[in-house]
Specification:
The complex is a heterodimer of chains A (359) and B (155).
Chain A lengths: L4 E5 L11 E7 L2 E8 L7 H7 L5 H6 L6 H16 L5 H29 L3 H22 L8 E2 L2 E2 L5 H27 L1 H7 L7 H6 L4 H5 L30 H24 L15 E10 L2 E10 L4 E7 L1 H12 L8 H7 L4 H5 L1
Antiparallel strand pairs in A: 1-2, 2-3, 4-5, 6-7, 7-8
Helix pairs in contact in A: 3-4, 4-5, 4-10, 4-12, 5-6, 6-10
Chain B lengths: L2 H8 L2 E6 L5 H10 L11 E3 L7 E5 L7 H10 L5 E5 L1 H5 L21 E3 L6 H17 L16
Parallel strand pairs in B: 1-2, 1-3, 3-4, 4-5
Helix pairs in contact in B: 1-5, 2-5
The chains are: A alpha+beta (359), B alpha/beta (155).
């Protein structure tokens, strides 16, 4: 076909849990152009953040994205704490690490399952999600809810992990590690999986840096950049090294996330071992005045919150820069040239979170 | 209950649409399909085609952009059909009350049969909502009465 074909991919598509439309122009079976049509999940949260009380906002920002919800709350709390000049107690910082890493495990297992489903490996999808339920049970046990756990608050955390809960987490995570290891090995060494992922959607390191990619998308191109190295919460006192894989293709990005599951398990166990005694939160008086920026590592990459207070209970401005927003340019650069059948897999390989992106 | 109605009860096919949700309820709907909750024991399968589906699971407060898509999907589904609004924001707008782009609930756009509470709604509640919807579906005639108008989305 000389004219080319135009295919709308989405907004309602079985592979995507969220509505996004990619308008894809094809030349035979090859993609020549991919244009995103956004706005299906735009709610106007940044504006609502100015209308609400700054303490209510913690609950609002958790619902920017349901998959990394508590990490949004942490970033917001860190920004407001910086404006107010607060520092969370030691124990709260460690508990934050525990919950953030549990959240990362569930998010990465979710991604690995969805990726398996994207190329039709249904049984592996089911297996990953079965293992993921172990983390969900831990979140429900410690925080009372499965997905949106609402643990962070300005100045600390709202809940404690007592000795019995800590013991349960210590017993559960090694089991999870064994099961996940078996599944990850079969995912990464499988012939069919390699055929569908190796060399697909390759983003070279220079291009990834130029386009400002973040998180596993960048680390999958061999660049060791991880905001946790900046040492917010208690990450500065825990030992870890960013996981990188050199090739920049879908396989590398998947391998980064798979290895980060095990890294996060180690971090949770280390944080529980070093959990200091002390208060859960510090009280505060006054209202935020001034501006501050908080940068944290969400499962999909670097998440930035900027908060501007004007001395009233409402914020002057709340700005959210989410990781998927930074990764979409890289995706749109590599999609042209792919085969049409690879579009779902390559799209999924940046682990897009549209409700984050559109807020 | 005739044969078609009986068969429909045992194989309710599900169409899932995210109308501006935060993903929390959507991943819980996916959890329902996976081994721990395994909604397939009730014969329910997630399908991508609205023309094959009996049950529409909608999450999210509905915004002005996807309102048209939601109405489209609803109109494409064949009667009899059930709409389940999953989660607090699909039921009432929830935490997104203040947001300028939100319609404040699925029932502002299409008729809703079952409201499932929770933020995010737990898989157990979603399954119960589905079962309640099926009980309602069982009472619907498989053929519309002569002269009856099909339920249509509000314009």
């Amino acid at each position: 076909m000389s004219e080319g074909t135009s295919v709308p991919f989405g907004p309602q598509h079985p592979v995507l849990p969220e509505p996004i439309q990619l308008r894809i122009s094809l030349e035979d079976e090859n993609v020549v152009q991919a244009l995103p049509a956004l706005g299906y999940v735009h709610r106007g949260i940044e504006k609502a953040g100015e209308l609400n009380d700054f303490q209510q906002n913690v609950f609002l920002v958790e619902r920017v994205c349901g998959i990394c919800s508590s990490i949004h709350a942490l970033a917001y709390c860190l920004a407001v704490e910086a404006v107010l000049g607060l520092e969370a107690p030691k124990r709260a910082s460690y508990l934050r690490v525990v919950w953030m890493e549990l959240h990362r495990i569930h998010s990465h297992l979710l991604y690995l399952g969805l990726l398996a489903e994207a190329f039709g490996f249904e049984s592996l999808f089911m297996e990953f999600w079965r293992v993921r339920e172990r983390v969900m049970d831990l979140l429900e046990m410690t925080a009372g809810n499965r997905v949106i756990i609402s643990v962070c608050t300005i100045g600390g955390v709202r809940r404690d992990i007592d000795a019995e809960q800590a013991r349960a987490i210590r017993e559960e995570l090694p089991k999870l590690r064994d099961e996940a290891r078996r599944l990850v090995d079969s995912l990464l060494s499988d012939y069919t999986v390699r055929q569908r992922t190796v060399g697909k959607g390759t983003i070279p390191a220079a291009l990834a840096l130029e386009l400002g990619a973040v998180g596993p998308t960048l680390r999958g191109s061999g660049v060791a950049q991880d905001m946790r190295m900046a040492g917010y919460a208690a990450y500065g006192e825990l030992e870890f090294r960013p996981v990188t894989f050199p090739d920049g293709d879908t396989y590398s990005r998947t391998a980064v996330r798979a290895e980060e599951v095990f890294q996060s398990i180690d971090l949770v166990l280390a944080a529980l071992d070093n959990l200091p005694e002390g208060d859960l939160k510090v009280g505060f008086k006054g209202r935020p005045e001034g501006a501050a920026l908080a940068r944290v590592e969400a499962p999909r990459g670097e998440l930035i919150y900027m908060v501007v207070g004007n001395g009233t209970k409402n914020l002057e401005r709340m700005r959210v820069r989410v990781p998927t927003y930074a990764n979409i340019p890289a995706l749109l650069t590599v999609l042209p040239g792919c085969e049409f059948a690879d579009v779902p897999v390559v799209t999924l390989s940046i682990d897009p979170c549209i409700s984050c992106t559109e807020r | 209950m005739n044969l078609i109605q009986k068969a429909r009860m045992k194989s309710p096919w599900i169409l899932h649409f995210n109308a501006g949700s935060c993903n929390g309820c959507d991943i819980e709907i996916l959890s329902c399909l996976t081994p721990v909750y395994d909604i397939e024991r009730f014969g329910a399968v997630n399908v991508g085609n609205p023309k094959h589906a009996d049950v529409l699971l909608v999450t999210g407060p509905v915004n002005r952009r996807n309102e048209r898509v939601l109405r489209n999907l609803y109109d494409q589904m064949l009667d009899p059909k059930i709409v389940v609004a999953v989660g607090t924001c699909a039921s009432s707008g929830g935490v997104f009350q203040n947001c300028y782009n939100c319609m404040g609930g699925v029932d502002k756009v299409i008729p809703v049969d079952v409201y499932v509470p929770g933020c995010a709604a737990k898989p157990e509640t979603i399954i119960e909502g589905l079962i309640l919807g099926l009980e309602k579906l069982a009472k619907m005639p498989s053929k519309p009465k002569k002269g009856a108008q099909p339920a249509e989305a509000r314009t």
